[in-house]
Design goal:
Order of helices and strands: HHH
Helix content: 55-70%
Structural class: mainly alpha
Radius of gyration: 34 Å
Largest sheet: none
Strand content: under 5%
Oligomer: single chain
Length: about 90
């Protein structure tokens, strides 16, 4: 039993004396691509409450922000209006 205690004691002494051998990890910053954002301007308008509720429900279901939905809707509106305008002017 004394031999076991001596071995255990010497193990504890060895652990105390030896420095911990932990690997040193080098931390490097993540290089993200810089995305050029288009300049933004504030846009406020009044819409019916029922339409706002529908837009909010859509944004939650499709995990899109209200801002993204509004931008997509306005761009779609302008492109369809431009196409209609071209067809009307070409028909004349």
């Amino acid at each position: 039993m004394d031999d076991y205690k001596n071995k255990l004691g010497s193990l504890a002494d060895k652990l105390k004396k030896a420095p911990p051998k932990t690997p040193i990890q080098e931390v490097l910053p993540v290089k993200a691509e810089t995305i050029v954002k288009e300049a933004e301007a504030q846009f406020n308008n009044w819409i019916p409450k029922t339409l706002l509720k529908k837009i909010k429900a859509y944004s939650v279901e499709n995990e899109q922000s209200l801002k993204d939905i509004n931008i997509a809707a306005l761009e779609l509106f302008l492109t369809t209006k431009a196409k209609l305008h071209k067809t009307v002017t070409n028909a004349d």
